[in-house]
């Protein structure tokens, strides 16, 4: 985890920002909860446990800066809540998500499935794709196996 923090620190420095204690606390929370898709409020509550002096506005600003620098991806699963997800190191594209409509579980697909689609969009429409994300809504294996699948 320390080497990842050092690399994030270098990314910040490369964009003329410092890894302040407030930013570091926020990054640590994101790293410690990398499997989760935390809202700004979730991040704030976890940061508060580490550094009670940090305010919600500081956490919001930090998350926006990390998003701008493509260290973090800001995502919305259609429920009106923005969530933050650390971008995989070396990833040129955002990863995709599978959302279970029964239990709410979110799984990730790391491989880029849309390379051919991007080529078609670029050639047919003259549109330069910089990034994309894809979310599938359905029923996870656990819910199907336990018979919890409704007819949604």
UniProtKB/TrEMBL annotation:
<dbReference type="GO" id="GO:0000976">
    <property type="term" value="F:transcription cis-regulatory region binding"/>
</dbReference>
<keyword id="KW-0479">Metal-binding</keyword>
<dbReference type="GO" id="GO:0003700">
    <property type="term" value="F:DNA-binding transcription factor activity"/>
</dbReference>
<dbReference type="InterPro" id="IPR036390">
    <property type="entry name" value="WH_DNA-bd_sf"/>
</dbReference>
<feature type="binding site">
    <location>
        <position position="132"/>
    </location>
    <ligand>
        <name>Fe cation</name>
    </ligand>
</feature>
<feature type="binding site">
    <location>
        <position position="100"/>
    </location>
    <ligand>
        <name>Zn(2+)</name>
    </ligand>
</feature>
<keyword id="KW-0678">Repressor</keyword>
<keyword id="KW-0238">DNA-binding</keyword>
<protein>
    <submittedName>
        <fullName>Fur family transcriptional regulator</fullName>
    </submittedName>
</protein>
<feature type="binding site">
    <location>
        <position position="143"/>
    </location>
    <ligand>
        <name>Zn(2+)</name>
    </ligand>
</feature>
<keyword id="KW-0862">Zinc</keyword>
<feature type="binding site">
    <location>
        <position position="103"/>
    </location>
    <ligand>
        <name>Zn(2+)</name>
    </ligand>
</feature>
<dbReference type="GO" id="GO:1900376">
    <property type="term" value="P:regulation of secondary metabolite biosynthetic process"/>
</dbReference>
<dbReference type="GO" id="GO:0045892">
    <property type="term" value="P:negative regulation of DNA-templated transcription"/>
</dbReference>
<keyword id="KW-0805">Transcription regulation</keyword>
<comment type="similarity">
    <text>Belongs to the Fur family.</text>
</comment>
<dbReference type="Pfam" id="PF01475">
    <property type="entry name" value="FUR"/>
</dbReference>
<feature type="binding site">
    <location>
        <position position="140"/>
    </location>
    <ligand>
        <name>Zn(2+)</name>
    </ligand>
</feature>
<dbReference type="InterPro" id="IPR036388">
    <property type="entry name" value="WH-like_DNA-bd_sf"/>
</dbReference>
<dbReference type="InterPro" id="IPR043135">
    <property type="entry name" value="Fur_C"/>
</dbReference>
<keyword id="KW-0408">Iron</keyword>
<dbReference type="InterPro" id="IPR002481">
    <property type="entry name" value="FUR"/>
</dbReference>
<keyword id="KW-0804">Transcription</keyword>
<dbReference type="GO" id="GO:0008270">
    <property type="term" value="F:zinc ion binding"/>
</dbReference>
